[in-house]
Each structure stands twice: as structure tokens, then as C-alpha cells.
Amino acid sequence: KNRFFCYPVDAKHYLLGGPVNNGGIVFDWARKTIFGPDETAEDVLNVAQTAPAGSNGLLFHPYLGGERAPIWNAQARGSFVGLTRNHTKPQMARSVLEGIVFNLLGASQGLLDQVGQPQALRVTGGFVQSDFVRQLIADIFNLPVIVIKNEQCGTLAAMFLAKTALEDKPDMEKIKKRTAESQVYFPNPQNVAIYQELILVYRKIEHELEASYEDLAQFQDKHPQKFE
Fold first, then answer.
1. Is it the case that residue 228 has pLDDT exceeding 80?
2. Radius of gyration, CA atoms only, the chain
3. Among candidate residues 57, 14, 22, 76, the one with its CA nearest the CA of residue 213
4. Cα–Cα distance between 131 and 128 in angstroms, integer?
5. pLDDT of amino acid 134
6. DSSP for 180-199?
7. What local confidence, expressed as pLDDT, does residue 22 receive?
8. Phi, psi dihedral angles at 215 (to 5 degrees)
9. Residue 179 CB neighbours (<10 A)
10. Are 9 and 164 in contact (CB under 8 A)?
11. Rounded distance, CA 27 to CA 96, Å?
């Protein structure tokens, strides 16, 4: 069904994943566009934390660059939905982050259907350096989030695959030490309830907007933005 990628590692194992276009790059867009280029990521996160879970009903679909998983639509476009004059920067900042994680949740669904529900999520990378974002992921996925010590697990995985290809057995004990947990974040039941209610609205609106993506893309191609 083309819901995720599936790469052979060896004769018995495969690497499954849900690739997305809209992660940290969307957060950086929000930082520059909503707050200004002089504001840091930490400044934006501090502001976002002052808004409640669910951003007072403001939803953000983060499809600024089309999207692969979970909707597989190159013509997809981003949107704020539910915006009122009562919403300000804190709600906008938080809704951007929530939208990115909602999208990751959608991308994970194909994997969950194939391999089953995990007991926890192990996270790494630049987007999850913040305690706030880690807790946000735990609340939206309703799973414990385990932060691992090694911040460059992509490089570690590449080394593992290279050794496997060369039939040089990787030292699993060293890998276990590098990927050991450094911190665990548990879901907040109150926030989980809010997000489980809101994600249904998010998905419904996502499907309703899908019919307009092609028209918007054609209009934007016909009237391209001009930079001076």
C-alpha cells in the first residue's frame, strides 16, 4: 500500500520507516515567520509552553513541502484551522509543534498496523532536544518516550549496516551502551485525553482539505510569488 518504506538489512531483517517532509524545517519556518529571524528556537518553545494542550482549538496542518507519509500527496499545503482573534503567538507556536507530532503519529500508523504497538518510543535528533517536545510526543502518542544517550543514531545505524554488509559482526554491547536510555517521559493523562479528542478533528479536516490541494497548487504555479 506504499504506506512506509521497507529496506532489507540482511536475509532475515528489514528496516521499516515512515518518511516525512515536514518536521524541524517547519518549526524553523514558524520561528522565522511568526516570531522573526532574531528569535531563537528556545524562545519559541518557551512561548509555546504558555499555551494549554490543544492550543485552545487551533489546529495546524504542517504540509509546507507537500508530504510523504502519511498522506502521500506532493500537492498538499499547510494551514491553520480554527483561528480566532483570541489566538495569539503562544497558541500558534504550540499548534505548529502539535501539528508536526500529529503528522508523525499518522506516519506511524502503517508501521503499527504491520509490527504492532510498541511499549515505548525511543527518540533522537535535533527536534527532540527540548523537554517540552519530548513530553508533547509522549502525550500525543500516549506512550513513554525514552531519550537515548547517543544523539547521532543515524550515524550509528549507518555504521551497523556497513559492518553487516562487510560481514564484520557489530559489537552489540557497545551499541547497547550508546543507545541506553538517559531519560524517560511518561504521558500526562489529562493531556492525552485532550489530544485523543483533537486528533479526530485534525484527521477529519485533513481529509476535507485534500480535495482543494490540487487547485491551490495549480493557482500557486500560475501566480508564483515574486521576490524583490
1. no
2. 19
3. 76
4. 8
5. 96
6. -EEEEE---HHHHHHHHHHH
7. 94
8. -65, -40
9. 16
10. yes
11. 7
Structural domain spans, the chain: 5-222
pLDDT at 172: 82
C-alpha cell at 46: 518557551
Phi, psi of 88 (to 5 degrees): -130, -165
CA distances 20 to 65, 71, 113, 129, 150, Å, are 10, 10, 18, 19, 22
- What's the CA gap between 48 and 38, in Å, rounded? 17
Continuous segment of H or E residues that includes residue 47? helix 41-48
Query: How far apart are alpha carbons 16 and 181 in whole angstroms?
Result: 22
Q: Are 134 and 123 in contact (CB under 8 A)?
A: yes
Helix (H, G, I), strand (E, B) or coil at 5: strand
pTM: 0.93
Class in CATH terms, 5-222: alpha beta
Q: Which of 186, 191, 188, 164 has the alpha carbon at shortest distance from 175?
A: 164
**pLDDT for 131-153, tens place per residue?**
999 999 999 999 999 998 877 78
Neighbours of 208 (CB within 10 A): 10
- Cell numbers representing residue 190 in the block: 489529562
- CA geometry: angle at 219 spanning 217 and 225, to 5°? 90
**pLDDT averaged over every residue in the chain:** 92
